[in-house]
Amino acid sequence: MDAKRDYQNYTTVLEMVNSVSNDSSVIAFGDQFSALFNAEDRPPRQREYFYFILSDGIRKDVVAFDYGAQYIFMRRIYNKAWISEWVQVATCSCEDMEWKDLPLSSDFINWDETTGNRLQYRKSYDAVYVQGVIKPADPENVAEIMRKQITTLPAGCRPQKGIWYQVCALSAGGYYWRCRILPNGAVSFDGCTTDALSAARNSIEVNLMIPI
Question: Which of 90, 123, 151, 169 could anchor a disulfide with 96, C-beta 3.0 to 4.6 Å?
Answer without folding.
Answer: 123
